[in-house]
Amino acid sequence: MSVELGSAAEHQRAGVASEGRAGPADAEAEDSSAEVLLAADKLHVSFPSGRGQRVTAVEDVSFTVAAGETLGIVGESGCGKTTVARCLAGLLRPDSGTVSLRGATLGARRTRQEHRAVQLVFQDPYSSLNPRLSVRSVLRELLVANGLAEGERLERRCRELMSLVGLPAGALDGYPSSFSGGQRQRIAIARALAVQPQLIVADEPISALDVSVQAAVLALFTGLRDELGIGIVLISHNLAAVRQVCDRVAVMYLGRVVEIGRRDEIFDDPRHPYTKALLAAAPRLRDGRQGPAARLKGEPPSPAARPGGCPFHPRCPRAEPVCTDVLPPLLPAPAGSDRLAACHFREERS
Ligand SMILES: Nc1ncnc2c1ncn2[C@@H]1O[C@H](COP(=O)(O)OP(=O)(O)O)[C@@H](O)[C@H]1O
Ligand code: SF4
Ligand SMILES: [Mg+2]
Q1: Binding site membership of 342 for ligand 1 (Cβ less than 6 Å)
Q2: Where are the domains of the chain?
Q3: 329: closest CA among 347, 344, 342?
């Protein structure tokens, strides 16, 4: 299905007209694509683990997303990706650390406008759509509740949203059960767009979809980023997908960001042994090259039994004695670069 983005400008105008505040269409935002849209700063999240103990799921996680940029977050299951996503969307309050939008820290209790600004799209769109409501009812309800459209404008806006996500206007009459997985994900994205977000956090948005429709949904995200200038955080274990659509990539391991940088730096010149191992496990991404020594050993350890020193050391093929004692900070690799890696040997190329 083709991606129709013809009404993107209209979407933007609608956002500004209804709000009178900085949004994706804000002239300033368009002038500077490198402007920091969202910043996560030193996020720390722990969960109760019984007997009065807490287990740390996310530790010292910081990153930024610019307007019109897609940041990918990758890492094995359980490394804290969804926990970070929930913090960004305001569904989970971190123990410490902040999330800010265009320089303004979002409070513990977000205002309605702050909630609208960061929208989450889930892996399984079916579970997040009310089966008893038609697409039109869902969208109308949202638009009215947020004071974004009324009267005749409501139907026009619903049609615009369908067009933005590449669905025919007739889809407005449908109910979630009548759509395919890919179409449902488009509807979930339309619902997120209805409230004119500045950033969409997509948590494994294609992993429940047929391979045949994954590329089209990814292309939709890319189109929205380019046409609307919104920021996107794409969480995915699919490295090929991340390489295809992301401008920058953060690699997480055991609750920490272990490497972050521009897409090509991460894929072509990874500096953290964990990144190298992830890429080695997907050899086609690296022109067929595969370093057997870099293959990942064993299962990721549980956050409840976090190793001392570098958390990756029990599985790391490059580990040396220093690694068992000293936690490597996230530092430029190479020196002076804006790519960061948390490894004592981050200057070494693969
Ligand atoms: N609500 C929760 N209560 C207790 N532990 C949780 C909760 N949510 C996540 N965790 C734990 O936090 C860690 C990170 O989980 P998660 O963010 O879902 O990882 P990912 O999305 O990368 O698979 C895991 O060890 C998980 O078991
Ligand atoms: S600091 Fe040591 S254990 Fe950690 S990733 Fe680097 S080489 Fe491996
Ligand atoms: Mg997850």
Answers
A1: no
A2: 8-246, 250-341
A3: 342
